[in-house]
């Protein structure tokens, strides 16, 4: 009997702990390095119109596809049975249900542009013969009719806009034409403000805007062309602000929408001198003045995309060459009105538009470096007006281009994935695709974004179902990047008996781009009992917003491998390392001690 055999026998009886080079386990399928998963990905909330039909068809007026009230999403949807109707959702399939069908036919009976006043969502619904202003709160089971708007069986309404504690809107009926109305959310408080153009002739109010609780709008009457008006919601408090152009429209019917900054409203106007301009008003006639008047080579409606960003105003200027645009910025005075990006023919690329406020500046859609479009930004200086990233963005599609929770959420196309859900914080590294709803080069057409609570909702198709509501946690839009994870090397250990083999292995290493801590979980913990043979250990790293990454390694336990033999049966080396321990029984230890005593006596006898 060799010494090696004696010590192996002793270890088998008494239990052993072994570390160091160990034999390699058979390779397992599925062995992988760290794989990041921005999961859960955006998910379809519910297939409202089962099959390929659209639950959110484009033919419906798009403003009311999705609208948030608190943590609840209200939808204008068509299930293929009820026709266009009001739905609500909490983001789950079970919590998405029909609220009210306003007609028995399939006519489009939900008006556009809902608005929030207090704790309720207000909207127009019903056919022209039974149109009404309705409201619903987040916890209400059904909507409430505020006021019927078709007392004579005909009428329409649109452009709901909150100002102060009231809602302004435009209502059309046979007696007055289209005129301004207001509502405080009650039946008695919903009424015509004033018939600006008396009789059936319409004053056609447009661009309803709030400035410190006062409603401003453009309209025309029997004396003046289209000009700027103001109202406190009463007939006596409604008046023309200023007759900017005595021989026609001072404000174009299709001019840029006015914006409020501090105590001033900025708008586009033409005083009749043949030059377009940016104007401002404090609501008084004397306080209505031009900020900057441009040459007669700009169009009457040449001032476009007026956007307020902090205390500054950005706008586009379009010249008679419709393809030539300039980006300007002003602090409200002629001296502070400066050109940021010149795009006249021969002077630079064409800006495509889509100005939207972000931080202290703006984002917009401009030319790509190799043609097409790209996302740009400006901080209000020429040096700070730069291209962010080459990605196709539809500047003329407001519904696919919105600022939500401090991020630009938009429908982008990188030329590989089709039009999908993207986000940007205004930096190249912070501009990327969030979710590929329709994998491959086909487009999901993600658009109509709404933030309800902490969930982002949008309209999209995965190519299997039609256009339906989809959702993703907003936290994952901010940070869809999974942690970085590295697993330890494979571990192989040798044990003297196939029972109670506890294996220790080094921990995995993980970090996250956010700098916050990462939680690691193991499918089988270090120090736990492993069976004889190969076991795959899967490690999962989870960051603060529940993005995950995973990797795996192998732990292999060999039993009775003779010590001192550094090769496997096939001649291969013994790679890997690890530690294993087994616990022997009391009887085994007594037997081991007896062998030690006998061995000692045997050695003593040989020396003598």
Overview of this structure, please?
By secondary structure, the protein is mainly β. It has a domain at 15-38 and 483-595: Immunoglobulin-like. It contains three helices and 47 strands. Strands 2, 41, 44, 45 and 46 form a five-stranded mixed sheet that branches. Strands 32, 33, 34, 35 and 36 form a five-stranded antiparallel sheet that branches. Strands 3-39-38-37 form a four-stranded antiparallel sheet. Strand 20 (259-261) and strand 21 (264-269) form a beta hairpin. The longest helix is centred in the C-terminal third of the chain and has 22 residues, at 586-607. The two termini are 21 Å apart. The relative contact order is 0.13.
Task: Write out key terms for the chains shown.
47 strands, single chain, disordered N terminus, 5-stranded antiparallel β-sheet, mainly beta, Immunoglobulin-like, 5-stranded mixed β-sheet, 3 helices
Task: List strands and helices in order, with pairings.
Layout: H1 3-14, E1 17-21, E2 35-37, E3 43-44, E4 66-69, E5 72-78, E6 84-89, E7 97-100, E8 115-117, E9 120-125, E10 132-137, E11 144-148, E12 156-163, E13 166-173, E14 177-183, E15 191-192, E16 206-211, E17 214-219, E18 227-231, E19 238-242, E20 259-261, E21 264-269, E22 277-281, E23 289-293, E24 298-309, E25 312-319, E26 325-330, E27 338-341, E28 353-358, E29 361-367, E30 373-378, E31 385-389, E32 392-393, E33 401-404, E34 407-413, E35 419-424, E36 432-435, E37 447-452, E38 455-460, E39 468-473, H2 474-478, E40 484-486, E41 491-495, E42 502-504, E43 509-511, E44 519-522, E45 533-542, E46 548-559, E47 577-581, H3 586-607
């Amino acid at each position: 009997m060799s010494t090696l055999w004696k010590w192996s026998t002793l270890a088998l009886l008494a239990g052993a702990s072994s570390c160091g080079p160990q034999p390699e386990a058979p390779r397992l399928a599925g062995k992988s390095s760290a794989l990041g998963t921005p999961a859960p990905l955006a998910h379809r909330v519910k297939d409202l119109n089962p099959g390929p039909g659209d639950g959110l068809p484009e033919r419906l007026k798009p403003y009311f596809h999705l609208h948030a009230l608190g943590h609840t999403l209200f939808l204008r949807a068509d299930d293929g049975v009820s026709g266009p109707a009001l739905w609500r959702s909490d983001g789950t399939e079970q919590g998405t249900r029909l609220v009210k069908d306003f007609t028995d036919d399939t006519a489009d009976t939900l008006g556009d542009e809902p608005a929030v006043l207090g704790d309720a969502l207000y909207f127009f619904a019903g056919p022209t013969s039974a149109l009404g202003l309705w409201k619903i709160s987040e916890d209400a089971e059904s909507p409430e009719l505020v006021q019927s708007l078709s007392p004579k069986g005909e009428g329409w309404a649109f452009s709901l806009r909150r100002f102060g504690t009231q809602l302004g809107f435009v209502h059309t009926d046979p007696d007055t034409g289209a005129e301004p109305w207001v509502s405080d959310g009650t039946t008695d408080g919903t009424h015509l403000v004033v018939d600006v153009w008396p009789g059936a002739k319409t004053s056609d109010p447009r661009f309803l805007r709030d400035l410190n609780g006062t409603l401003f709008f453009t309209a025309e009457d029997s004396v003046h062309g289209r000009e700027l008006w103001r109202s406190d919601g009463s007939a006596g408090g409604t008046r023309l602000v200023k007759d900017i152009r005595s021989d026609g429209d001072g404000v174009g019917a299709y001019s840029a929408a006015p914006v409020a900054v501090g105590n001033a409203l900025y708008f586009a106007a033409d005083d009749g001198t043949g030059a377009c301009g940016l104007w401002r008003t404090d609501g008084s006639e004397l306080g209505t003045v031009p900020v900057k008047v441009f040459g007669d080579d700009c169009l009457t409606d040449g001032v476009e995309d007026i956007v307020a960003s902090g205390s500054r105003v950005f706008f586009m200027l379009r010249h008679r060459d419709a393809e030539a645009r300039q980006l300007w910025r002003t602090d409200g005075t002629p001296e502070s009105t400066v050109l940021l990006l010149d795009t006249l023919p021969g002077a630079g690329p064409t800006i495509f538009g889509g100005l939207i406020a972000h931080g202290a500046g703006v984002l917009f859609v401009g030319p790509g470096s190799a043609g097409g479009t790209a996302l740009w930004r400006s901080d209000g200086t020429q040096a700070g007006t730069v291209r962010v990233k080459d990605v196709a963005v539809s500047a003329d599609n407001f519904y696919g281009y919105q600022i939500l929770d401090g991020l630009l959420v938009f429908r982008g196309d990188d030329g590989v994935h089709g039009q999908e859900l993207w986000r940007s914080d205004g930096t190249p590294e912070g501009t990327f695709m969030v979710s590929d709803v329709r994998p491959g080069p086909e487009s999901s057409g993600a658009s109509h974004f709404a933030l309800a609570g902490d969930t982002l909702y949008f309209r999209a198709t995965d190519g299997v179902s039609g256009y339906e509501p989809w959702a993703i946690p907003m936290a994952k839009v901010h940070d869809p990047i999974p942690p970085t994870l590295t697993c330890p090397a494979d571990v192989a250990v040798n044990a003297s008996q196939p029972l109670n083999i506890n294996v220790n292995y080094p921990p995995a290493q993980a970090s996250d781009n956010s700098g916050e801590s990462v939680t690691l979980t193991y499918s089988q913990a270090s120090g736990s009992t492993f069976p004889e043979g190969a076991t795959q250990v899967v490690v999962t790293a989870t960051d603060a917003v529940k993005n995950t990454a995973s990797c795996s390694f192998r732990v292999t336990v060999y039993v009775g491998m003779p010590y001192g033999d550094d090769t496997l049966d096939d001649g291969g080396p013994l790679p890997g390392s690890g530690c294993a321990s087994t616990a022997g029984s009391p009887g085994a230890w007594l037997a081991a001690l007896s062998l030690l005593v006998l061995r000692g006596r045997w050695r003593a006898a040989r020396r003598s």
